[in-house]
Design a protein that fits this description.
The structure holds two protein chains of two kinds.
Chain A: H1 2-5, H2 8-24, E1 27-35, E2 41-52, E3 58-67, H3 69-125, H4 130-158, E4 166-168, H5 170-180, H6 182-187, E5 191-196, E6 203-205, H7 207-224, E7 234-242, E8 246-253, H8 281-291, E9 295-301, E10 304-312, H9 315-322
Parallel strand pairs in A: 5-7
Antiparallel strand pairs in A: 1-2, 2-3, 4-6, 7-8, 8-10, 9-10
Chain B: E1 7-11, H1 15-27, E2 31-35, H2 38-42, E3 51-56, H3 64-74, E4 79-84, H4 89-97, E5 102-105, H5 110-141, H6 146-155, H7 161-167, H8 172-185, H9 191-200
Parallel strand pairs in B: 1-2, 1-3, 3-4, 4-5
Helix pairs in contact in B: 6-8, 7-8
Classes of the chains: A alpha+beta, B alpha/beta.
Chain lengths: ~325, ~220
Amino acid sequence: LFLSRVHPEDRNAADEAIERARAESQTFEIEYRLLRPDGDIRWLISRGRYVSDDHGGVRELIGVAIDITAQVKADLQLRLQREEMARMSRVSSMGELTASLAHELNQPLTAIASNAAAGRRWLAQGAPDPEMFEELLADVATDARRAGDIILGIHHFVRKGEGTRRPINLNEIVREVLRLLHSDLLGRGTAVETQCAPNLPSVDADPVHLQQVLLNLLMNSLEAMQSIPAAKRRIVISTTCEANSSVAVSVRDYGSGLPADDVDKVFAHFYSTKPNGMGMGLTIVRSIVESHGGKLRAENVDKGARFFFTLPVTRESEAREVA
Amino acid sequence: LSKARKLVCVVDDDQSVRRALGRLFRSAGYAAETFASAEDYLSREIFEGPICLVLDVRMPGLKGPALQEALEERGACEQIVFITGHGDVPTATQAMKKGAVDFLMKPFDDEELIGAVKRALGRAEEYLHKRRERREARGRIDKLTPREFDVFRFVILGLLNKQIAAELHTAEKTIKVHRGRVMQKLRVTSVPDLVRISQRGGVAPAAVRHGTKVHYPAGS
């Protein structure tokens, strides 16, 4: 009867702890959630021990249950704050990157624009000196290349971990990211459902980068569902294997969806629907996926949006699957 | 053609920006020189004509307002247009307060930049013109004898020959001769012109004894 009131996810753990205490006549201490009939969830901690009679049988169970809901909530709050701080520092380092980027790009752009303006003036005056024009155009080409190199720099920044690629199982990445986001999900009352394909072939990738990809997609989904009631917030993550050559990960939310006119707009640089958004998240996600030889797509689905990316499976596992 | 005697100096540590701006100003008909640093510019001999300095705010070495001060000390008459890759408001404000003509953000519109340079050169020319006038006036005034100079100072005060004679304890006839020489040496024909040249040359009218009636000349 007691166990029927314990939250389904904590039931096994509670049952085991009590059973072990009974078998070994030990004290026990369990932390669990109590599901009240009205749907409210309370956190409790129970400590107790079994008292044996002279024959070694169990005589009685003495224990105490303390409601620690307030403490748990405070801990959760603290964790959320800490994570928000970590997120902010990530965002601000992105901000610094874009600021220095803007400055660096300004130089070649200024030179290109000034050279073009000078060239047009000379042409308008009707007496262009071919030698000078040759020099001018060579400078324009050099500066265009310089601007390109700066852009390439961001790609290198994003691809920094290229050397640390190894075969990894995307199901593990999903599990790790969900663990990282656990308190965020809890705090926002969002249910996450996973549909992981068994025996998923591995992909060659940098695990940290793939975590970033999934983390970004999940944060996006969470933000897209901010305006809908907590009871309806739901994310479905699924992994599938496509024709043994690639693995697909899909993140589907029940949020506000993508701009109807052009779903691909979300991938553009500096596009953001958030008041403080940099508009760089999905751009970076896309460049990470593409640097791994994969593809990232977005689409509107019934009552929400779906992002999914595919990554090619590693050669070895391809060979193994075939053999 | 008069533009050719005006000089635009670009100071920017970025070589391609420097070269491009040099071309732009030459295409607009100005003589242009480029410098990699403020120090390089300062080691150039002083150009006597109107100069517009186009300066990047962010440079290694001497920069922005500090450079403005160094230039002031040097006594040339460059007018400055600042360019910057950052929206650095405090620096811009400080630079404008110190007399910069404009402050433009990179990348800027070429018309806007050339417009600012044109204004700067106009200002430099005006400044040079005034300075030339002052030097010229001083040159003529320096040719006066001490006595003629005294008479000059009384004339611009508006005294009549008779009054000046009384002030200087001499004959009215003598004053008339001195006055004629002053007009001749300063190459003017009227009292108002005499007053104008005294103002350009920074000469103050003489102080009078109490009770002397002063007739202010026209044009003062």
